[in-house]
Amino acid sequence: MIASQEAVAADVQAERSSTIPGLREGQTPTVLVDQVSKWYGDIVAVSNVTFGVAPGVTGLLGPNGAGKSTTLKMICGLLAPSSGTITIEGEPVRGRPDVYRRLGLVSEVETIYPFMSGREFVRLNAELQRLPNVDEAVERAIAMVEMQSAADRRVGGYSKGMRQRIKVAGALVHDPDIILMDEPLNGTDPVQRVQLMGLIRQLGRSGKTVIVSSHVLEEVERFAQNIIVIVNGRLAAVGDFRAIRERIDAHDREIRLRVDKPRRLASALIDTDIVRAVKIDEHDRVVADTQDVREFYRLVPVLAKEHGVRLYEVQALDESLASVFSDLVER
Amino acid sequence: MTAQLTVMRLTIRQFLRAKSVLVVAGICAIPLLLAVILRLADSDMRDWEMRDTLAVVIFQGLFSSTLLPLAALVLSTAALGDEVEDKTLQYLTLKPISRLRIVLEKFVGTLVITVPIAWTALIGVWLIISWGNLEVTRDIVWPMLAASLAGIAGFSGLFMLISLVMQRALVLGVFYVFVWEATLSGFLPGIRTISIRHYMQSIFVRMLDDDAVTLSNASRLSTATITIVAIVVISLALSAWRLRRINLE
User: Which of A127, A131, A155 to mutate: most B Cβ within 10 Å?
Assistant: First the structure.
């Protein structure tokens, strides 16, 4: 009798998961956001969002102010939803401190107790987690973010990238199964970025459920198999990154390039098939409108080399990404 | 054991590096300054003048009525309020520890800093006022220390709660100290019964048991003690309740 009830429950769960955005058929969600809204007076920050997240890395993508941070804060219980429910492994989060044994948050908050060293901050997190072997856990976490050499310096003197990495160490010190990261790559230099992205991929491969928010599409592509796109507080797209990427790539994107000879590169770009328009902005930077971002990224260094142009910076403009996201919502 | 006091140790470190401790030390230094001035003005105080100056003028009239509530206000509103404001509170709340424990350790951390500063000031005042004849006023010291401990605990618990309920807790606290405690409770007998200062001073006069040091409608020692303990317990319980429901942006 009990076995039959369990079978029915499993069937119901499997049937339900096939209808929950973000989950494949039969998948059990680690994190379930069910018809969640959050509003402040007349302002709606998140509007009736439903999705499930399973183990692996999921990118929470959207332009600045889309509601990504609010969603993450609701998932980890810092904010109460105005309506709807959020569960982690079937349990509600708010008012359940025990959930935090399995959950780690790398928040967008930049402030860390400035009088502490990096090691002391990670140790604070370990002690509050009541870990049996604090010293070992602290050293392991610091090594994960490669901060051994700076761990004894005051956090107040850290660069933004170092603060991000020590926050990651603090969030991972108790080896949680569910990790939420709010724009963890903000302020990191290219080397730190590569290191952190490797760590995120490694966490996903080890079976942990990792949700990473970002407003940079190309960044998310490097570590997430699944993405959830949020625009203006609404769910715009959920699912496999490649499928959504194809939809996104169907739109024109504006890419800004900082080079030493902007006019020479602009004229080379306009001669290609993938660039619709090129202009030089007030800071002498090239702004190109392309319908094939991937090919554009492949072609730019080749053209620069051919025409003797030195390339300093390539940046996708957020405004153009925002319009792409908006189109996804309208579909 | 040490791990269980992590929040308390953090609170103490935060206070020792904050300007607010200097403000509290400055507030508590005022009676020391007054004591020096009074002794310089009258270097040949008689026994009863020493007792009156220490117990009535300085402790009842200045320290317990205004300075102690202000000192407690500055640190207790910062204990949790500052963490809400600079958004570091989430480093504590996103951990598998009860909200009551966070509040309790923050409260004890506040007392660990405030009480020694207040007691040092009071002992200093006693030494200055009674210099050369300490025996005359020795019996006033313990009631002063006990009453100030009760007062700091009561005010700290209340102000910590206020800091979780509203953003400008310091402003409301100053209003409470000067308008409610220092003015209204002096004129309106009904308000007196819900004044922490009244119970703190009741503890002082009942412990001292000196006919020359009185308080109008003083509560019994047991009543005053139980009331302050109740204020602390209720304030901390409400703070923990509030911490469970607070939205941290």
Answer: A127
This prediction has a pTM of 0.84
Taking Cα atoms as reference points, which of A54, A72, A61 lies closest to residue A17? A54
Taking only residues 69 to 88 of chain B, the set having a beta carbon closer than 8 angstroms to any beta carbon of chain A reads 86-88
Query: What is the tens place of the pLDDT at every residue in B15-59?
Result: 998 889 999 999 999 999 999 999 898 878 888 888 999 999 999
What Å distances lie between residue B222 and B64, B225, B230, CA to CA?
A: 19, 5, 12
CB B247 to CB A125 under 8 A? no
Coil, helix or strand for B240?
helix
Integer CA distances (angstroms), B212 to A51, A225, B15, B42, B218, in order:
74, 81, 39, 21, 14
Inspect the interface and report whether the beta carbons of A128 and B249 lie closer than 8 Å. Answer: no
pLDDT digits (tens, 9 = 90+) for B78-134: 999 999 998 999 999 999 999 999 999 999 999 999 999 999 999 999 999 998 889
State the Cα–Cα distance between residues B207 and B174, nearest whole angstrom.
29
The answer, yes or no, to whether residue B1 has pLDDT greater than 60, is: no
Determine the distance in angstroms separating the CA of A102 from the nearest CA of chain B, rounded to an integer.
9
Once rounded to an integer, what is the mean pLDDT over residues B173-202? 82
SS3 for chain A, per residue? CHHHHHHHHHHHHHHHHHHCCCCCCCCCCCEEEEEEEEEECCEEEEEEEEEEECCEEEEEECCCCCCHHHHHHHHCCCCCCCEEEEEECCEECCCCHHHHHCEEEECCCCCCCCCCEHHHHHHHHHHHCCCCCHHHHHHHHHHHCCCHHHCCCEHHHCCHHHHHHHHHHHHHCCCCCEEEEECCCCCCCHHHHHHHHHHHHHHHHCCCEEEEEECCHHHHHCCCCEEEEEECCEEEEEEEHHHHHHHHHCCCEEEEEEECCHHHHHHHHHCCCCEEEEEECCCCCEEEEECCHHHHHHHHHHHHHHCCCCEEEEEECHHHHHHHHHHHHHC
Substitution target from B94, B102, B241 for chain A, most A beta carbons within 10 A: B94
- Min Cα–Cα distance to chain B from A317, Å: 28
Of B144, B70, B83, nearest to B109 by C-alpha is B83
pLDDT for res B43? 77
- Using the predicted structure, report yes or no on whether residue A57 has a pLDDT greater than 70: yes
Backbone dihedral region for residue B20 (phi beyond 0: left; psi -120 to 50: alpha; all else: beta)? alpha
Contact between B90 and A109 using a beta-carbon 8 Å cutoff: yes
CA distance B1 to B5: 7
Residue B158 CA: distances (Å) to CA of B27, B155, B175, B187, B242: 19, 5, 14, 22, 13
Residue A1 binned pLDDT confidence (cut-offs 50, 70, 90) = very low
* Torsion-angle region of A290 (φ positive above 0: left; ψ -120 to 50: alpha; else: beta): beta
Q: How many CA atoms lie within 13 A of A45 on its CB side?
A: 20
